[in-house]
Amino acid sequence: SKLTSLGQLEMTWRSRVHFHPLLVRVLHKSRIRYYGKPEKKMDMPYQAYFEVADGSGMMSMVLWNSLCPEWYNSMKVGTVLLLEQYAIKTSYPFKTQPTPGDSQMKRFATIEISLNVRDPPTKISIIPEEKVKPEWGLPEVKYRFITRSELDDLPNNHSCDVIGLVTFVGRAERARKKEHGEDFWLYRWAHAIDGTSDQPFILELFATSQPDVFEHIHPMTYLVCTQMRVVRDLTENPSSTIYLTTSNESQIFITGWHKGQPYTKDTKVKNFIQWTKTQSEADQMKKTVIGGYYPFPRPPDNFLKY
């Protein structure tokens, strides 16, 4: 059928009601948001953002309500979608923005694709990777992997992807979202090493929409975390408290989940796998720790500073 592109959509969307089908690749995926309120009677108040791209650039796509439980887990980073009967809306200005792996990619930020059960009922098809044709011109998923030795030079809030061997994982902890609210964030601390430094990556992992992965992070697993943000304490000794925290678009993968993921082609991932082959499992096992209370960033040495 006749296809349109994201670039054409941006130019012509105001003058149209019906749009030609779109062929796009998912580049980023946010966690699912629940926006239910006690006074509003909605069956499935869910929403999830994706960043999708074709040869012309990248645009946000929103999955609404009952389409979330039906499609969210199937739409992985790298998945190719054929979209028919979708709506176009002006962009929501306050949403989070992932950092694209390809800095040259054009971003269409004024509008977003809206996928709903009705008005109009969207038709979504997933194209298997082996049927994707090069002439469609869909971009590949690109990453920004860093090694532990590179981390110390990165600025606060820099976005990056990491891979490492887990040496410590803490218990799940909770933090209030608002001071007197009843909602909590669930998170856990982890350490991962990659052989490029004596220091591990210190990772603050908030529960993403991947409970099956979040709950099964354990020592000696190969952990991949994407769209992480650098956090530096810029006040005292900047190098002592550098760690990485998850963002709204972070994805986490552990051993058993890596097969077929786009990052397996990345050079730094291949280098890490080569390094693990030189390590003795028994030696690394001796250094691993699990559970317990992990105060971080550490409190100062004396009460006066505290």
TrEMBL record:
GO MF annotation list: single-stranded DNA binding
SUPFAM superfamilies: Nucleic acid-binding proteins
Name the record gives this protein: RADX protein
Organism (species): Nyctibius grandis
Taxonomic lineage of the native organism: Eukaryota, Metazoa, Chordata, Craniata, Vertebrata
